[in-house]
Amino acid sequence: MASGPRVNTDFRPPDNSVASSGLRSALADRLGLARYELWFGEGVELGFDGDALRIEVPSPFFRDWIQSHFASTVIEVAEALAGHPLTLKFDIVGEGQPDLGDVVHRTPGRNRTSTPLAIPGGAPMPPPTPAPPAFRPQTPRAPASQTTVTGTEQRRILRSLEDFVPGTGNRLALAASREMVETRGYAFNPLLIHGGVGLGKTHLLEGIAHGLRKRFPGINVIQITAEAFTNAFLEAMRANAQSSFRSRFRGVEALIVDDVHFLASKRATQDEFLHTYNALLSAGRPVVLSSDQHPRALTKLSDELATRFLGGMLVKVESPDAATRRAIVLSKAAARGIEMPEPVATYIADHLRHSVRELEGAVHSVMAHASLIGRRIDLNLARLALGDSIRSTTQAIALKDIEQAVCKLFRIDADLLRSNSRSRSVAQPRMLAMYLARQYSSAAYSEIGRHFGGRNHSTVISAEKKVKAWLKSDLQAAALPGFETMADIIAALERNLGT
Hints:
- By secondary structure, the protein is α/β, with parallel strands linked by helices.
- It has 4 domains: 17-104, 2-Layer Sandwich (GMP Synthetase, Chain A, domain 3), CATH 3.30.300; 148-317, 3-Layer(aba) Sandwich (Rossmann fold); 322-394, Helicase, Ruva Protein, domain 3 (Orthogonal Bundle), CATH 1.10.8.60; 399-497, DnaA protein, C-terminal DNA-binding domain (Chromosomal Replication Initiator Protein Dnaa, Chain: A, Orthogonal Bundle).
- Helix content is 49%, strand content 10%.
- The chain is built from 19 helices and 11 strands.
- The protein has helices at residues 17-31, 33-40, 60-82, 171-183, 201-215, 226-238, 242-250, 267-282, 303-310, 322-335, 342-351, 356-373, 379-394, 399-410, 414-417, 424-440, 445-451, 457-473, 486-497; strands at residues 45-49, 52-57, 87-92, 103-104, 148-149, 156-157, 191-195, 221-225, 254-258, 287-291, 313-317.
- Strand 5 (148-149) and strand 6 form a beta hairpin.
- Helix 1 crosses helix 2 (33-40), helix 4 (171-183) packs parallel to helix 5 and helix 6 runs antiparallel to helix 7.
- Residues 1-15 and 96-155 have low confidence and may be disordered.
């Protein structure tokens, strides 16, 4: 994709209203009315300008999202109307400074055009000194920009978006969180952030709450867990105080609910939350949610709630890659007043790959060992402090554990997985199980084949090759609700296995 540093803030769509109207109609047909209205409705202008199709958007976030998800479709539809090749150009309303990625050229043979989001707030950590000093614990101080949660909750510091370490797996979620703070839900509403445990969802929600209070002083924001919402609702019912409960939650200016998957199977609470949700969205109040799964994967969540969640912005946080893990380690140490040596940060990042939470725990463990025995933080100390944790994460996984994880996710019986069935709903999970067995168990090809239905080693080799091909081709995973690609399914299985 080509990109240029210029952004024309004085853009006016050319006088081609008939062509633009036809383009809008065709886009609505291709994308569906709901997605069209969300991303190309109010605040977005379309216009032909010679050999270019110009799109005026309200923010860089809109530009990046349209580039990543709709660029090829928009160009294809526009070229069909224009009858000649077009370049897609973006103009950002009120953008006073140059920004990268404002021009998109059609790329032959590709379905998507994307530009990495440039997210501020992830300043690099300073390099460590050659000889790190002996550890001296310091009492961390809250940055001036942070606020606290008071009232019935324990007084504590709210984390901010500026403290969040960006990486490839969370960059879009961070951008969406910043946009929610900037626009109070004008760009999209609701925002639902989903992903595995310990990946930073709660941090993002706290950052949004903090950002809203800072940007809009006096705003009435409720940040609460779904469990606390449920308990408050049940208590209101017991005390016959539903009116007060509803007044509290439906009268807020922003509602932020963590772990919304907790509502699954709680029908009465779901009904109450649905009415609260509808009241807030009807009034244009922002709603921000987090869940450990995609709404479609929450089988005990009511269809009414699931479809409403799907009508907003859904973003996923992934497990951090090596570079992000290392940056998180350095950031957590710096927040405690410690300059972590580079080899130690790399050691922790290379061996603990599952979640941000375990990285933070590793930093605390290393610091505690250094304090207790009065030694400098170095690689030998890190190995001593984290030996048990790292050994537990590198142990080989049993074939039975892999079988159970696959059967649980796909909701099939283990006997069916080992059967001779060649239907896609059985064969696909079986191949994934064989692939994971090669990745995480110490079993040979022949042993894996025998476990999964008495198959020979060549069947396991073929299954491994097929799964690798799926990953390379970004195969869509429509057969399993709640997952977009095969890589998403494998990531969920790996989380369940603790890898």
